[in-house]
Fold:
Amino acid sequence: VNLVSIDAASPVPPFEQLRAQLAALVRTGAIRAGAKLPTVRQLANDLGLAKNTVARAYAALEQEGLVRGDRRLGTTVIGAPLRSPAQRAHLVREAARRFLLELEALNATPDDGVHALLRAAGETR
Amino acid sequence: VGDAGSALFALLVTAIILVPGLRPITDAMLTRWSLRFDVVVDSANREWLVSRLRRARAVRWIAFAAGVNISLLPAHLSAIDPGIASLISPWTSSAPIAAAALGALLAELLVVQRADSARIADVAPRRWRDYIGIGWIVAVLMTIPLALIAAVTATAGHHGGRWSSPWTGPVLAIGAAVLAAVGLRRIVDRPPLAASGQVRLLDDAFRADGVHHLVGASLALAGTAAVDTVLLTMSPGGWSLLVGLARILVLGAWIGLARDEPWNVARVPWRQA
Structure:
């Protein structure tokens, strides 16, 4: 079961939280290419979000080339696209910027973040 | 005396319908339900599940009782005003099944949306096909062309009286399909009680139960409407028996689907893929 959650207390907007989690699920292969995502209405109901918020996250995923939206067929995962090293570096910088934003909201230093990151990476391995 | 007798009769009929409909959910019923949907009801989840099942069943039976009483109106009115009784009779004959279908929808509309404020969701989409076999939906939809063809044939042959228009059948069949569609959408889009685990399985089984009741009643309404329209195209005789059998078949399908049809939401093929 692949779950996404919204933290109402987070400084990161719900749209961005949802986009980032779905993008991670697609990039790691947890959601396979060809799989369907829930309808905007269904996911909005489940997460207690406005439909526009979910629609915006889906649109961002489509722009990133991770999903394909179709009025009739719904939203289909097309898998993580192949990226150039420059594109990948840009995306990593973006992710780091979001991470720093969360650390700031928690009154944590970048060092705390690096330690937590290394520990999480160790747990993942 | 006539009015009092009618009221007493209506009360008796209502009581006969509501006594089994409002009785508590017993352990035997719950065991049968859990076997049917292939889920385990543990003590932690028993209370809310029984409460939901009981409330949904009560709403469905109260609606059915109301429908039966509406269908009895012409009989009550015949002693007072036979003209009005014969006027409304064709419209009230479908009331029990129509009310049962509306009751099945109402039971779903009254389900509490969310048990807690957890904002967690599964990214696997819920679809109506997760809760019922596609054949049942096809059966409901097939009644529409059947009723339409029968209505066109009956109209060409000038069958049906002033108040029993052949077009009542198609209208009822379309109405039943719309009712089923609205209910299915409501059930599928309802937020789950939990994103995973045992509560999610029970919630899904409860959805499947609601879908079975709703589609069963819609099929009965649309099916009997279509069969009645077909009957208008036939001259009285041997075919009427066949039509009568078709009516019994449709009503039997409703009861079978609502009471016995097994379904395991977790094991449907598209969830496994």
